[in-house]
Amino acid sequence: MSPTVPLVQLDTTFDAAELEKEQLEQVAWVFKALSDPMRLKILLFLHRPGDQCCGPETCACDLEEVTGLTQPTVSHHMKCLISAGLVSGDKRGKWMYYRINPSGVQFVQRFLPRVGG
């Protein structure tokens, strides 16, 4: 999954009876990011406060330990989650620190009821 559809500009109102093709591609991008079991595990870990070694945010070292993945693989998964707008991150020194992006989670919560959820 390469980052080709940025979701920062995504319209999350879903008021139109029919979503435009670009909006549907953006929605699909989010669900592609959610379709990987390891990414779901990462999101669940990010949601649990207090389990991190480095304070309130989660550093990449926490994710390597929790997932058992190498640093490059963790970075790939995080790039996918960030490009989908589900996670945000900041680089401090040599480490990246991650947290759940509330607007990305709200996007999913607002979309699912539109398909009968």
Short description:
With 117 residues, the protein is α+β, with helices and mostly antiparallel strands. The protein contains 5 helices and 3 strands, in the order H-H-E-H-H-E-E-H.
Query: Which CATH architecture of the domain at 39-110 is right?
Result: Orthogonal Bundle
- Reading side by side through the largest sheet, how are the strands ordered? 1-3-2
Number of DSSP strand runs: 3
Q: Show unreliable segments.
A: 2-9
First-to-last CA distance: 26 Å
Question: Structural class, from helix and strand content?
Answer: alpha+beta
Helix content: 40-55%
Strand content: 5-15%
Whole-number radius of gyration?
A: 15 Å
Helix and strand succession? HHEHHEEH
Number of helices: 5
Textual characterization of the structure:
The chain is an alpha+beta fold. The protein has a domain at 39-110: Winged helix-like DNA-binding domain superfamily/Winged helix DNA-binding domain (Arc Repressor Mutant, subunit A), CATH 1.10.10.10. Helix content is 48%, strand content 12%. It has helices at 21-34, 37-47, 60-67, 71-83, 102-111; strands at residues 58-59, 87-92, 95-100. Strand 2 and strand 3 form a beta hairpin. The radius of gyration is 15 Å and the shape is elongated.
